[in-house]
Structure formats: C-alpha cells, structure tokens
## 1
Amino acid sequence: MGKVIVIVGGQWGDEGKGKIVDFLTEKADVTARYNGGNNAGHTVIVGNEKYKFHLIPSGIVHQGKLNIIGNGTVIDPAVLVEEIENLEKRGFNVSDKNLVISANAHIILPEYVQEDKRTGGKVGTTGRGIGPAYTYKAARVGVRMCDYITKEAKEAKKLKPLVKNTWIMINDAINNGKNILLEGAQGSLLDIDHGTYPYVTSSNSVAGGACTGLGIGPTKISNVIGVYKAYITRVGGGLFPTELGTEEKTNNEESLDKLRKELGEEGFKHLYKKIILKANEDDEYSQGRLLRVQGVEYGTTTGRARRTGWFDAVAARYAIAINGLSSVAITKLDVLTSLKKIKICTAYSYQGKTLTDFPTNINILKNCRPVYEEMPGWSEDLSKIGGYDDLPENAKSYLERIEKLIGVPVSILSVGPKRNQTMVLREEELF
Ligand code: IMP
Ligand code: MG
C-alpha cells in the first residue's frame, strides 16, 4: 500500500520545504502542488546542479515521476512556460508523462500583476498577481486553464498537451497504491483562513488545502509533515512576535551579494566577525542579522532580506493543530552555530496574562510579548555532521526541547542545503 504524505510549511513560508520535498520525492511516484502560484519559490540542489522553481514541483528533476500542478493553484502561463523551457535547455524532456496541469486551475492574466502591484503594497505581496487571480476565481469571473488553452497565444499552445483532468490521475494513483507527495506553498501562518490576516496570501496553504486543491478526500491522507526552521523568518509585512531587530531596519539592509561586492572579501569577513561579536553581546538586531547572513535569508522569488527571529513554539503548536501534523522536519539547525545563547519562545505575555494558544486576532497578537527560555548554544560547524549522535550535546538538547514544547516528533533534521545533509530520525513517518 502506498502512502499519501502532505508537506506543509509550519511558519511564514521559506522553511526549506523544497529541500524536504526533494528528499522525499526519491521514494514518491507522484508529487503534486495544491495551492499558490509563482509567489512561491524554491531552490533544489542535486549534486552540483542548482534548480529554481516557482510552479513546477521539484519531483521533475527525478526520472520517471509524475508531477501535478493542481486545481487549487493559480498559474501565470508565461512563467510556467519559461520554467519548462529552462528545464528543456538543461536536457530534461517535459511531457504529459512527467508534468500535468489541472484543467480547472486559474490563470494569472498580465493585468492582475499590474493590479497586485498597485494594491498589494500594505501586505507586502510578491506582486505576482496572486491575490487578484484568487479574487476573480471567487467572484466567478476568472479564466481557467481549460479555457485558456483554446486561445492562440504561444504559451497556450505550449501548455495545451499538459492540461488534464488531474483529479482522475491522482485518485487513480492513490487507488493503485502509489506513494504520493502533496506539496503546499507558503506557510501555515500565511494561510488565508488561519494566518495572520490580512497579512496573508490568498490561498489555503494548510494541509486541508491539499484536498480541495487537488480533488482528493481527507480519508486518503496518511501523514502530514510540517517543515520548520530551527528559528523563524517572515518576508513582507505583518506581525512577528519573536522578531529580532525591526522590520524597517531589515528592509533597509543591503542584499548579501551587494554587501560582498561593496566590502570585498576581507571587509565582509570583518563585518561578519563584528556581527557575531555583537550578537553574543545580546544585541538583538545583530542576532537577527547573524541568522540572515548565515542562513542566506534573502528571498528566492523577490531577493528581499527576510525578517528573522527566535523559534516560536506558540505559533508552532498552532500550526500543528490546524494541520493535524504527525511529525515535523526541522531545517537549518546549522544556522544557529556561533550563538552562545539561543532563545525559544514558549508563551506570550498579554496584558499581564500568559497565553499559550496563538491568538488569531491581530489586535491581541499586536500586544503580545514573547516569553523566552534560554538555552546554551554551540560553536561547532554542523554542516558536515553525519548522524544525530554526532551533534553537539547543546544542539541535541535544543532539538529535544523543541520536540517537548510542540508535542510531536521530529522525523527529519536538516543541517545544510544538500541531500546528504539530511537525517531521518523517524522512518515510520515517511514513505
Ligand atoms: P502574495 O502571496 O504575493 O499575495 O503575498 C502575500 C504575503 O505572503 C506577503 O507578505 C508575501 O511576502 C508572503 N508570501 C507569499 N509567498 C511567499 C513564500 O513563498 N514565502 C514567504 N512568504 C510568501
Ligand atoms: Mg520559498
């Protein structure tokens, strides 16, 4: 019997889902995207090759797998065609044997992108027309893939052979005992219903979205894995209780590439040393900046510097509940290296009261202050660690503390972007 596993982001996106999905795809027969559009972006590294995807599931880089872009997604045809052509240029053959698109998925028209750029400022949208596409879908005036491919446009002709009734294909695959990986874009705290509204995206990124976004029933799902960074980040506007430094200061920061260019290698090394020093003198902005620099926290889609903060167990537990997570994958543990002390937010303090449940009312969340627990850090480079037992004791204690605070097991641990920097801790949660 095959398994149907959903992968969701447990935070505000960019948790490293792409890497976890890619790791699990080796044993999956089908990989499917169920929400969002080219607001998402992930980088997959296979050997020395780097691939960037916004729409196509990362299973495409493996031979003989079927990849589905579900009805719950919104598709910018030009972007999808470009992704396909880039793959073709690199020697991949893309056909309906390895990539299919739901006939019911909605299209992002060029004017939606313009509209998003005009109106999405407050939320800090990626400006890709995602919000307008879902708006027109709900208003029942949208354009679906099945209609779009009847048009004369070059993109329409290119996509036509890939457009299918994907609900049949995915249900057949489930009934035939295949292993199926369902990939959510963005994170749970950006979900249109459950996120920090209005600072959210326009689709259901939570596990429930996998059912509506692909046309399968909830009884078919075997496991749900939430991906979390060992700390937390957010891009765009919105509340962020454990933020280190301020949104304004982060937004005004130069990109890593620009810094390197401006300062030169020596100058950059000097700055890096200074950031570590100040971070360990309890300067919050420098702690956040250290995470940003060590974690390369700059968007794949927009290049924006990401806001960074300490692991938030209150928000993590909320994501566990709304997704029904059976286990979590923790990524980027290596990024915490060099911090003498690491904090975990265990509760919020609100008007003299202690809250342990995440408040979804932003007027309450706005006035919540994190309650922290402090743990000792480590200085060892984790990126070459072979197995869990080789981790520094303090890194193990940190992970065990997170596991205890959130109440579900860690099934996968990642200490770097490469496939061999991934440890399986609970085989039974995976394929
Ligand atoms: P939109 O999805 O482009 O409308 O953007 C809405 C909000 O979600 C903004 O704050 C974006 O920064 C955020 N967002 C959208 N996609 C992603 C993602 O893949 N990772 C992180 N944040 C995202
Ligand atoms: Mg991303």
## 2
Amino acid sequence: MQKGNINVQTENIFPIIKKFLYSEHEIFLRELVSNAIDASTKLEKLVRLGKADVELGDMTIEVKLDPAKKQIKVIDKGVGMTEEEVKKYINDIAFSGAEEFVKKYSGKDEAEVSGIIGHFGLGFYSSFMVSKKVEIDTLSYEKDAKPVKWSCDGSPEYSITASKKKARGTIITLHLDDESLEFNEESRVLSLLNKYCRFLPYPIRFGDEEKSVPVEGKTDKDGNPEYKTVKQPRIINNPEPAWKKSPAELKDEDYNSFYRELYPMTFEDPLFHIHINVDYPFNLTGILYFPKLKKNFEVQKDKIQLYSNQVFVTDNVENIVPDFLTLLHGVIDSPDIPLNVSRSYLQSDSNVKKISNHITKKVADKLEELFKNDREDFEKKWEDIRVFIRYGMLSDETFYERAEKFALLKDLDGKHFTFEEYKTAIEENQTDKNKKIVVLYASQPDEQYTYLEAAKNKGYNVLLMDSVIDTHFVDFLERKHENISFKRVDADIIEKLIEKDEDKLESKLQEEDRKKVEEWFKGAAPDGIMMQVQMEPLSEDKEPLQLIQPEFLRRMKDMSAVGGMDYMQGMGDSYTLVVNENHKLITDLADTVDEEKRNTLLNQLLDLALLSQGLLKGQKLSEFIHRSVDIIK
Ligand code: ADP
Ligand code: MG
C-alpha cells in the first residue's frame, strides 16, 4: 500500500469546500455521472479511431444506492485509469481546480460566492461535499492494466492499493456523511438524476422498476392477454434527445412530443419550433419553442434549459439568451458557453455574445419564413406571439430591424397590417394639418366606445393596443418614425385628435359668460380627480361635455406602471373636461340665474360626463340616481 498527501498547498481544503458549496451540494451527482459519460465517450472514440482494441458491449452507466451502508456508487464501463493516471488526474490536476477556487473566493462573502459556485464545477472533488470517505476502483482499458483502488477520507491524505475490480471501467463509491443523509433516499437521488441526467448520451440505470407485461401465449377466456409483473432495469434518461437529431429526421409530431417530454405538465402544443444546429464558429444545438400564452400573459423566464453536451446546467439562461427570448421554451446545448464564470463575466464573453446574436437571428429567420410562406396562419398565431415580438423590438435593435417586416398591427375589425401597409392605408384620411400621420388606437374598446364611435363617424381607422407593453411600444414606434404620432381615441375630442383645416365655429357665449361657465365647472370637479376645463365652440349637435384623457400624461403613467417608476404611481389620473360652448344646455346654464336650478343642471351634466368614463362611483353615483329620479318627477 502506498500513502501520500494530495498535492495541495492550501491547508485542509475540505471544510472550505463544504462551507462554500452549501446550497449546491446536490451537484456532486451531476459531476460524477458526467465523468462517467466522459470516460465512456473517450473509450468509444478510441475504438472508433482504432486505438483501443476492446469490445465496447453494453455501455450503460449505473447509479446504485445502498441505504443500509449509506453508500452511493457510480459505475461506468469507460476508459478507466491506470495507477499513473489516478496519480496524475485525481491527486494533482483535479485538486488544482479546487485550490484555485478556494484562493479566489475564500475571502468573499458567502452569498456572493454561492451565486458563482454553482457553475464552477469542482468535478470529482465535489463528492467530498457529501461524503466522509470516497473510493475509486478502476481498471483501465489498456492491455495488461492492473486494477487500482484509491481512497481518501476527507483529509489531504490518500492511499492507493490494488483493487479486485475485474471489468473495465470505474466505480466511484461515496460513504455519505451524517449531514448528507438526504442523498440516502431513493426518491431524492431519482429526482436529481431526472434533473441533471435526463438527456445524457448513454443509458443511465438507477435500480429496477416493476412493469406489467403480457405473458406470451396466454390469454383469458375473452382473448385478452394475461399480464405478469416483472422487474426491469430502470433507465432514467433519453440518450437521444430530439435536439441532437437532424431536423430532416423529425416531423412536427416529434417536436411536439419532445415538448411534452420537457414539460410534462403542459397540455397545449407549442405554436411552432426553431431547431438550431451550428457547428462553426461555435457549437450550438437546441430547439426553441414559442409557447401558447395564457390569457393573463404570465411570463415565465425559466423555461429554457441550458445543457453542455447533454448535461443539464441551468434553467436560468439570463445573459446567454437575449432577454426577450427568455420567454420562450426549449433547450439550448453548447459546450462553448463558459460555465465556470460569473454571470457578469458571461455578458462580456465574445463567444456568448455570438451565440446570443445567432439565436436572435435564427428566431427572426423563422418568423420571417412563417410570415412569408403562410401569412394567414401567421396572423392566427399573432395574438400569442405579439408580446414576444414587441418586447424583442423594444429591447434589441437588430431584432427590430428584422421584425419591422413581419410585425403586425391589428385594427378593431380584426384586420392585420404591417407598419408600412398601415401607413399607406390611413395616410389619406388621417394626416393632420401639420402633415403628421395620426394613428388612433384603443386599449379597451368597450370602455372607449363613445370615442370609437366618433372616430368611426369620421371614417378613421382604430388599432387595438391592449397588451401590457403596448404603451411602451407605441411610444417606441413614434420615436422610430418621424411624422407619425399615436393617440388613444379618448385623448382628445375628435376635432382635435386629428386636426384639420376646418373653419372654427363662432362661440355663442359672450366672453363674460365663457369665464363664468368655466369657473363653475372648475369648482365642481369631484375629489380625487385632476380635471382641467377647456372651453370649445363646437357644433350644437355635439355633446355638451366630453371628458378626455390627454395622451402625454396618461402614457407616462401607463409606462411607469409597467416600468416600475414608482414616483408616478401615486399620481391620480388626469382628465380634461371639454365644454361645448354652443350646446343649448351650456348656453342655458350660462343664462340660469336661480342658483339651485343651475347647480342641478351643472351637476347632472358633469355626472353624465363622468359616467361615460366610468368615473362615477359610490356616493356620487347614488346622488346622481336620486337627482335623475327627481328630474323625471
Ligand atoms: P474534469 O472532468 O473537468 O476533467 P474532474 O475533477 O471531474 O474534472 O475529473 C478529473 C479527472 O479525473 C478527469 O479529467 C479524468 O481524467 C479523471 N476521471 C474522473 N472520473 C473518471 C472516470 N469515471 N473514469 C475515468 N477517468 C475519470
Ligand atoms: Mg468532470
């Protein structure tokens, strides 16, 4: 037997590993199984290159739990290691990684470290996070190799002895420590395997499962087969996930069934998929899905899984996938994404940037293809994808340039237009006297009905802009296009929404009376509503009062609600009351001398205007109803 110290300067490294890796202990299993995969891949390569003369046979990797002994074993039939290799790769090399880690982070605050550490990959040594002792039994594939046993109890001391192992490959045995007995539970280990190993490229067996199978040649009297229960190896993974296959091999059904394999709790099919397959200048494969959105636009940002050579890494792909695409679902696999670095470093990594740009480009390509090949179908899907696309246009300039061609606007009749098409369609009727094209939109057609009617009477078209980010989007389009302005239909009286050179009407009110009426209405503004009064000589048959919500302030407020600008949140809504100086009731009001009569008329008119904007509530509403009844009497 040989003894020696692991080649490391840092005094007892294990307590430090344990402390810092606290929240991520479970990754030990991912690391050990990955090593088993690596060892198997290496051997297969050597055989293919004619450099190893062995029969590969069944390469299934096995994870075994022995609860009585509190042991976990990971068993592979890969390359194995000679004694030289154990010394070189386990004692020296592997530890330098751990050492580097400790040097770098031991002075830092724990929370900060645990964020980084998840992807550090201490590899083999992460097994000491959960074990009081670790053993390696290994037999190299090389001719005449002798089996070796390496053992270490968590101090820098290790021993190497002869092993009894007969078959090629490696067995890693963990003796779980008392704080880690959660990993002595079958269900816990199974869930870890399902999380990290679901798509590893070799079959992974974890114990047995019972299955009901028909007995050959035996049927009951109705001709139904008889069943018996048998034990079968439980294989926990799918070694050939769809993203590793060539798109030509796969049909839509295959993509959909892979979607369901990824998200077993999702019942709806995705809208469409994008298969990514690049091997130069970086390696990137994957399938992204556009999910069907729920009504309430609940956006989930953790539905894309990142893999590295089929090993699950994370479902937090921030900084790797462009922000707007984190709303998609699916899988991305790239060994070229550095995993051992902090998130902020990722952002500046040039490979990651290229990958991110490539993904954006692929998504734009696919959308453009769908738009060009089958516009009708694209329009049907538009409802579900518009949030992604608008968010993408807002946040990513390259995507904006691509998406301008296929992003759609929908009007209240359900007709779809690209931006250019829409501009052409409304240009003639909706250009104002300053040569600006005015785009009208509604956010809640039901509540803005009166205003919509007014627009319709003028022959104006109105767009539907009813999703959470639309105010931002409208603001953005306005900045992108000169000579276009967007106004919500209730942002002004129809004469001013799109101002044209029309003769201004004479006012029927004397200057003195105008002032008087204006003051009365100002004084009557209900509590909690900011209300400006604006006197206008409109046609007699227009409403006496109209309550509008000026575009600018309303937009600021809407945008702050989405964008988290809290300081605007407390602000009440701001309205303008437009008084039609030429309506008979307004001229009557000016002429009414009896104060009580006048107040009744004034309040009745104002309440009707408030009612039309849904602003009459509580006591005010009750007063209005009583007053109305009195008037009818
Ligand atoms: P990495 O996998 O990043 O190289 P690890 O710490 O996980 O780092 O492993 C260190 C080295 O130990 C591996 O590179 C490999 O040479 C060797 N090794 C670990 N596990 C096995 C195994 N199951 N079979 C063969 N060699 C192994
Ligand atoms: Mg490894």
## 3
Amino acid sequence: MAKIVIDGGYKLNGVVSISGSKNAALPCIAATLLTSQPCILENVPEISDVEVMFGIIQSIGGKVERLAKNKYKIQTQKISSSSLPRDLVRKLRASILFLGPLLAKKGQVKMAHPGGCILGKRPIGTHFEALEALGVKFQQNRLFYTGRVKRLKGAKMFLDEVSVTATENALMAASLASGKTIIKPAACEPSVINLAQMLKKMGAKIKNEGTHTIEVEGVTTLSGCQHKINADEIETGTWAIAAAITKGQITIKNAPLENLDAILYKLGQIGVRYKIENSNLLILPSNNLKASRIQIDTWPRLPTDLQPQLTVLVTQAGGDSLIHDWLYEKRLLYTQELVKMGAQIILFDPHRALVHGPTQLSGREIKSPDLRAGMAYILAGLCAQGQTIVGKVENIERGYEEIEEKLQKLGAKIKRV
Ligand code: EPU
C-alpha cells in the first residue's frame, strides 16, 4: 500500500491547474449506457474511481478508448449483461449510478450492495424509491439486488433525502421513461447540472436542473454526444486551503468560478486573501486567519466534501470554530488523528466539533480513512512541524488527480513511497 511522506512547513508557491470533477464525471460515464452511439467525454479526471467505472462498462460489453489525456470515447453498442461484477461494484458507491441507465435500456439490473469507503456503505433506499416511482420492482437477497421493469413510466416522485446520486439516477431513468417525471426535492449540486447538460446534448428533455424541482419529458432514444466534465470545486477549495495554511501564494487555473460562492465566502470570512484575475483564482499570503462556524449543508451551502479540509484550515485560525456536518454518520471521527498531531479539537458527537486555534501541528504517521479525511491529513502534514506519513493513499487517489505531482510543483516536500 502506498504512502505519502510530507516534510511540513514549506510555503506553497506557483501555479496549479484544476482537474475535472470526480462527482461530475462518474454519472456522465454511467449515462453513456443510455445510447448505443459513441460519447466523447473531455476533462475526465484520471483517478481510480473513473477506472473502476470504465471497468464496469467494459464488463457489460462497452468499449472505452483513451483518445488523449483526460479525453475518452465510450460506446456500448449492445449491453451484453445486466448483471454488474460484484468485485468492481464493491469498490465504489457510485456504481449505484448504473441502476438507472440499465433499467432504462435493458429493463433489468442485478448488483451487489455498492461499496467504497466506510462512508460509501450507507443505505441506498432513496435510489430504490426514485426508481420504484418509475415502475421498477426490486427484490433483494443476501448477495444481490435485482430490479425489473417492462418500460419505465414517468411519475411525480418525492425523494426522502435530497440525494445527489439518487437525483442523477432518477434523471437518467426518467430521460428514457414514457411521459413526464417530476423529481422533488432534487439535489442542486454542480454534478447534477453537469449531467443534465450532457443528457440534453443526447436529446433528453430536461427543465429546471439546478433547482429542487426538475422536470423530465421522456423520449424514446438518446444519441451520442461530446461533453466536457466541469472542473472540480472541491479540488479548488483544497488547494486554496493548502496555500492559506502554509502562508503561500498560488494561482489556481481552470477553477470553476461559477461554483465557488459558498467556498470563497467562507474562506474570505476566515481571512484567506484571494482575488480573481483573468479567470484565475489567486490565493495571496494569509497572515491573520480567524475562527469561523463551518456549517455544512447541501448545495448551494458549504459542501461536506470540503469539511475535513476546512477543519484543518481552522486549526490554524485564531479562536473557536464550530464544525457542524450532519450529512454522514461518522464524518468527524477523523479529527481524532488531528488531535494526536496537536490540534485542539473537542468532539461533541460524530456531527459537531469545536476547534480551538491556532495550533502548531506536528508530523506523525496516519492512515487515510477515506478520500476527504485523507486529503485533510495531507494538508495537516503540509503545515506541521516535521514529517507526516499518510498511509492508504489509494483512498485519496480515488478523487484527486496527480496529487503529489501538483503539490511538488507548488514547492511542497512530498513524495510517494
Ligand atoms: N443526506 C440526508 N438527507 C438529505 C441529503 C443527504 O440524510 O437530504 C445524507 C445521506 O443519508 C448520506 C449523505 O447525506 O448519508 C450524502 O447523501 P447523498 O445521497 O447526497 O450522497 P451520494 O449521492 O451518495 C454524493 C457524492 C459524495 C458527496 C455527497 C454529498 C458522488 C459520486 N458522490 O454522494 O461524494 O459527499 O453526494 O454531497 O457524487 C466525495 O466526493 O468524497 C463523496 C463522498
């Protein structure tokens, strides 16, 4: 298992370019199954979650061709099986995104409970409810879920959770259902909008994406398309924080400026100095970071996927910061390792913690429990005294492209072993 070794205390300086967003890319890859024609996806991040999604497509008869770096042609002329390989499905929760397309194209699907990190193993009831509303009958035994439907039928559905991927599944299925579907309350995250834009290029009739009420008028076939995955707002926030905690100055290129409102608002409140110049985001040296309340919520508020990184930021800010993240059951447990690095954090319960800053962190050896907490440990290592070794880097590589190359280019003393 790979580890990342960081010698902390060096200012980051230079230019970094933002990759395509993992969470925008994964549903678009699944959506290619909705047509037998080729789809060309650009700005696809070359990360392990994307590889697993490609592996699943190939296992059911699809072809994936790398046309250039970050550019792929995907075509599934004939779906050879509606049963998804258990070993790949267990690798990531986003494999659930194949439910909608397979039911729409084949009328059936068989898959194991999707896996991923501890956060990814949570229930998937909202996905089932959304697809059941369109006429799917699900059964489950100890090993598999199976779903069947003759033809999906549009319906008005109410989602118990404003779930991002359940909204995406509903959107993909409804695009090929007969009649009209109303998805409510739909998630509004940029990845949902990005998927809707791709589906529209394929011929889907979708209205009001980006709001809590999405309307879809089903069509009988969808065609191929060329589509660019949007840049990753979470990666942007992560590098901005990396610069701020090392008091560095960096230029972030290809940042999705339209999707950064909540993140830039919070960074500004904490005292991270930034400006936007020629469509680049410049992070200026920040010397006076101040505590702030980190209230996580669904879009357009602060995203949970940036919460661990923001927590590291406020360990360097003067005063008491309350972190409140209600989304995942065990989301804040990673803070225990930050405490061992010297952070002053009181964990009230798995959803609320108080961080007292600023504190000088010191390096240690830690294992990354999941993607975002793992990245938070790398950030902590960048501003810690001494050496930090972050293990289980595989968890972090699921969502960040070229982590050590990008950080090395910014002057971080970081290597992979
Ligand atoms: N939740 C609620 N009520 C809601 C909305 C969400 O309780 O109204 C809870 C869910 O029960 C769950 C959590 O919030 O525990 C996340 O829910 P959601 O179903 O929206 O998550 P997801 O669709 O499975 C996507 C991203 C995650 C990201 C979440 C939340 C993809 C492939 N995954 O997951 O990304 O954390 O939305 O924004 O898009 C990551 O990139 O690190 C990651 C885990």
